[in-house]
Amino acid sequence: MSPANAAPEFLLHRGQLLPAAGFTLPHSSRAALYGDGFFETLVWSGGRVRYREYHLARLHRAAAVLRLQLPPELLSVESVTELAARLTAANQLDQARLRLQCWRRGAGLYLPETNAADYLLTAAPLRLSEAPVPTAGFARQVRTLAGPLAFCKGPQAWLYVLAAQERQARGLGELLLLDARGCVAEAVAAAVFWLKGNDLYTPALSTGCVAGVRRAHLLAVARAHGLACHEGAFEPAAVLAADAVFTANVAGIRAIEQLDGVVLGSSGHPGLAALRRWEAVD
Length: 282
Fold this sequence. Notes:
Layout: E1 10-13, E2 16-19, H1 30-34, E3 37-45, E4 48-49, H2 52-66, H3 77-90, E5 96-104, E6 117-125, E7 136-143, H4 157-169, E8 174-178, E9 184-187, E10 191-196, E11 199-203, H5 213-224, E12 228-232, H6 236-240, E13 244-249, E14 252-256, E15 258-259, E16 262-263, H7 270-280
């Protein structure tokens, strides 16, 4: 197994295992010129891709909206798992964070020459985090944008870059983004949830938030255990009045301890402990 801080030595481009050192895409790539594509962030653990069915569904939905024709190796759970297994084995990683970047091949201006998709799969040591977020706040400088591609990762990356910069400038552990109406949408790189009484709440996809795979999995697990789940448009006041607030993505579930000066103490909430327990065995 590679050391945790060692840079992976190999990547996969079009199914071909290549040295990571020195690999570059041509300047004419549509990924570089137009951002004409999207990406998926995957977790390899226990000999499998976690949440793989959710990832594949979002990947195929993004490709359909962008009118991208995916290669055969990206069409099934089994073939994507095989790619991930090859790459993690080559890099001697038992656990890994994988990034699958897809973009349109060929040249052309706004009108592409082809709809065939190219792809690149890279690996990095996995760093999970369940540590509480000490302080969080609501974003002041950017708002999420609802649209046909808001559900996937990549097309609106500039928004999250600006949000991450605001988070750092304000010295916060997390930043919660609002939509154009002022309703809560998501965190910088995670879905946001809260518990009130015996119910679980999260912003609806109509707020322009990413359709996170951990978000979908948590909702499915919660409903399977009889927890009432609500997806909707909620103002910040609803979150501030919650019993517990937390973020969730493939890297972990993190309780928010203080939000806009309101002390929540989310990490000790029994409902959050139950969700973690249910998900761990699902």
